[in-house]
Amino acid sequence: MVTTRLRSRPSLRFGWLEQTGVLLAISLEGFRKTWDVRRWGAEYIEQCWFVARVTTLPVMLIALPLGGTIALQVGQIIRQIGAESGTGATVVQALVTQVAPMAAALLISGAAGSAITSDIGSRRIRDELDAMEVLGINPVHRLVTPRLWAASTVGIMLCSLIIVAGVAGGFFFNVVQGGVTPGSYFGEATSLLQLSDLLITLFKAWVFGFIAAAVACWKGMTCGYGASGVGRAVNRAAVIAAMLVFAANYVISTLAYSLFPPRI
């Protein structure tokens, strides 16, 4: 099994190439049993509730200032050229295409990912993963698969929530404080967007959630023994997940702009 091979030697002695292979092996092995929903369905619902519970409030607290900051900075520039009505379009375009999926991914990796790493790491140092294998249960299928899908599902939901909250924050700074009429703000809000932009954004949120959960599970299952080992794994999981999310965002955005050029 994958987990048996992981414990053959300490994770700190792995080379970076071997660690990449282990991450891919855990991710693909967890994805392979997706069809067997009966085995992980209950854990999936529980993990969805957990991830949503620890990320919803921080998302709201971040999304409102994000939308307001974008609206404030863009509004200052647009106001100088006399195109205040275009602020809504700019805010919504930035939120939908870039800000929302990235913010959701970073919160999932920072809040939920840390909890996932510490949970699986604690199971590892208590030898619960070995006990599951003795009972004939694959720990990757039982623990990793539901967390991968839970983080991906909640990532899509959080992305939608960030867009709504960000648009509300932009409305406050532009309409209430900036003097832009509500009709101009919402009338131009969708002028730069296409259906493909929304679909790509939701796809990004799904991929980023999957990456965050995969890294968290990987570091938890390969952490060093002891409390210090789990702590180091949590810290590294958050950093690695953020780096991979930024890299994936660049790749997906480049392909998206090549296949679906922005509308002017």
TrEMBL record:
Pfam family, any one: MlaE
Keyword Signal part of the UniProt annotation: no
Alphabetized UniProt keyword annotations: Membrane, Transmembrane, Transmembrane helix
Residue stretches spanning the membrane: 148-173, 193-218, 239-260
Keyword Transmembrane helix: yes
Entry-linked InterPro entries: Permease_MalE (IPR030802)
Annotated PANTHER family: ABC TRANSPORTER PERMEASE PROTEIN-RELATED (PTHR30188), PROTEIN TRIGALACTOSYLDIACYLGLYCEROL 1, CHLOROPLASTIC (PTHR30188:SF4)
Name recorded for this polypeptide: Phospholipid/cholesterol/gamma-HCH transport system permease protein
Originating organism: Actinomadura algeriensis
